[in-house]
Structures are given as structure tokens and as C-alpha cells.
Specification:
Largest sheet: 3 strands, antiparallel
Number of strands: 6
Radius of gyration: 17 Å
Helix content: 25-40%
Protein name: PX domain-containing protein
Number of domains: 1
CATH class: Alpha Beta
GO molecular function: phosphatidylinositol binding
Shape: globular
InterPro entries: PX_dom, PX_dom_sf
Structural class: alpha+beta
GO cellular component, one term: endosome
CATH topology: PX Domain
Pfam families: PX
CATH architecture: 2-Layer Sandwich
């Protein structure tokens, strides 16, 4: 199997005869962790998309950061009306009264449902023909030191 990458390229593409590794991105949201009065989630990304500097990386994010990401993407979409042809922005899992004002947000069932919804959201935007190229999303997925609050 040959590689077309130079020694400085962090993500070599695999080429074998006429086969070239397809571009893909897969995001897993896992490992919910309570920190004070909120939950953080581990976001692990595996990709061959050239927009990313590595093939696999992880960050921790809290729900509010996901909400801010969605608002940013919504704003980007409104700036490019023709981009709507690529489809709608996937929703975040909703809040309910117990999650906002009580201990319900720390219950295992609620956390698991939210985790699944966040994973679906991220995979939908990362694979979206418009959102895929938004730098804010790249930073959200890769930058361990950045806050998106």
C-alpha cells in the first residue's frame, strides 16, 4: 500500500492501485462527566476530511457549548440563503423543566438521551455539505483549550 503524503503531512491518504480512501467523518459523544452543576461530554472525532489537522482527536464539551455551536451555524446559514438547499440544521435534544430547574438533568436516562441527541446533531452538521466547511465547527471539534460558552 502506497501513501501520497509527505513527511510533514499528519494525515496520509491511503492509495492502493485505483483505490483511494474515501473521505469520512464519524463523531462519538461519550463519557458524560458531572462537573459542578453541569455535565460535560467527551467528543471523539475520526476523519479523513482534509479540513482537520489529525485523523482522530477528542475534546470535552458541555451542553451550552453545543447550543452555542448550533446558534453560530444557524447564523452562518442565514448569511448564505442559497445554502438552505442543502437542508435544515439538525435540532439539539430539547430541555425540559426537570433538566433546567431540578436534579433531573443529572439522572442517567436523561443524560443518555441527551448524549445520543448530541451525537446525532454533531454527525449531521459535520457531514452536511455546507456546515462541514465552517471553521467554527472545526475548532469546536479539535481545540481542547477553547471555550465555546
Amino acid at each position: 500500500m502506497a501513501s501520497t503524503a509527505s513527511s510533514t503531512d499528519k494525515k496520509p491518504k491511503r492509495i492502493d492501485g485505483d483505490y483511494q480512501e474515501p473521505e469520512y467523518i464519524n463523531i462519538i459523544v461519550s463519557d458524560p462527566l458531572r462537573v459542578d452543576d453541569y455535565i460535560t461530554y467527551k467528543v471523539t472525532t475520526q476523519t479523513t476530511f482534509p479540513e482537520y489537522s489529525e485523523r482522530e482527536f477528542s475534546v470535552r464539551r458541555r451542553y451550552k457549548e453545543f447550543a452555542n455551536l448550533r446558534e453560530h451555524l444557524k447564523q452562518k446559514l442565514s448569511e448564505k440563503p442559497k445554502a438552505i438547499k442543502f437542508g435544515e440544521l439538525y435540532p439539539l435534544p430539547g430541555n425540559n423543566l426537570s433538566s433546567l430547574f431540578g436534579q433531573g438533568r443529572f439522572e442517567a436516562d436523561f443524560i443518555e438521551e441527551r448524549r445520543k441527541g448530541l451525537e446525532q446533531f454533531l454527525n449531521s452538521v459535520a457531514n452536511h455539505n455546507f456546515f462541514r466547511f465552517v471553521n467554527y465547527l472545526h475548532r469546536f471539534l479539535q481545540d481542547k483549550d477553547a471555550s465555546f460558552l
